[in-house]
Specification:
This protein is α+β, with helices and mostly antiparallel strands. 39% of the residues lie in helices and 31% in strands. The longest helix is centred in the N-terminal third of the chain and has 17 residues.
Length: 98
């Protein structure tokens, strides 16, 4: 079953963000992830303040998403994350096909 990594992101430092984004993109591809949404216009219809950026990545499974997040390759990107961005990160199981 597919799993989704959803990020609500606010940029802290543009240069650090670009470096982080490049590393993250490479690791996501390496672990079979694919972007479904990445920084497009987002409209809040209900709820709190709008996030600056929404990113949605699909992985083949929750296990694969967790493997990516815990990987040594992504650890390099995480070293930049604190300076680059503030975020709320969620892992969500997809729907089981009927």
């Amino acid at each position: 079953m597919a799993a989704y990594v959803i990020s609500e992101v606010e940029t802290r430092d543009r240069a650090a963000m670009e470096a982080y984004r490049t590393l993250a993109e490479q690791t996501i591809a390496r672990y079979g992830g694919r972007y479904l949404a990445r920084g497009g216009a987002a409209e809040v219809v209900e709820g709190g303040p709008p996030p600056e950026t929404i990113i949605i990545v699909e992985f083949a499974s929750m296990a694969r998403a967790r493997e990516w997040y815990a990987s040594p390759e992504y650890a390099e990107a995480l070293k930049l994350r604190q300076a680059a961005l503030e975020r709320r990160l969620m892992f969500v199981d997809g729907v089981v096909p009927v």
